[in-house]
Amino acid sequence: MNRRGFLAAGLASVGAACGLPPAKPEAEPLRVSLSDVKRLIAQRVDPIAGRCRYVADLGTRQVVQPILFARRGEGLDALIENALPQPTTVHFHGLTLSQAQDGAGFDPIAPGERKRLRFEVQNRSGLYWFHPHPHGFTAEQVYAGLAGLLVVTDDEDQALDAALALAPGNRLALAIADVRVRNGAIRPYAPATIDCLHGWFGNKALVNGQPDAGWVVAPGWVRLQILNACNARGLLLGFQDRSAGKESLLPFQLLGTDGGLLAAPRELDRVFLHGGERVDVALDVSGRRALQTVSLEFDARHHTQSAAAGHRHPARGRYAPLAQESVCETPGPTETKDVPADGAELALFSLRIEGPSARAPALPARLSALSQAAPALDTPTRRIRLDFDECTGFLIDQTPYAIDETGFSVTRGAREVWEIKNSPISMPHPMHLHGFGFRVLRRQGTFGAARKLATEPGGRFPTDLGIKDTVLAWPNETLWLALDFTLPREGAFGGPQRYMFHCHNLEHEDGMMMRNITVL
Ligand code: C2O
Ligand code: CU
Ligand code: CU
Question: Rounded to whole angstroms, what are the CA distances from 322 to 29, 110, 198, 344?
Answer without folding.
Answer: 24, 14, 21, 29
